[in-house]
Amino acid sequence: RILRDGYMSMDMAQNILVIKTVSGMAMAVAAALDALHFNEIVGCIAGDDTIMCAVRSADDTILVMDKLKKLIAG
Which InterPro entries does this chain map to (predicted)? Predict the structure, then answer.
């Protein structure tokens, strides 16, 4: 639910996944991401409206983006 409510957009740069959220929601969304225990994600750093996730590889980043899109779509 927090992912759906807070999510705005996402993009990637090699093995870095950047997720934009509603203002003030980045920490909550990052905590929800951590709770999913995706093996591909090494860790996340959250600001006010942006999350940067270190992902194991560029291919894994694409995989994580696909997983998140499916979760957000419901």
Answer: Arg_repress (IPR001669), Arg_repress_C (IPR020899), Arg_repress_C_sf (IPR036251)
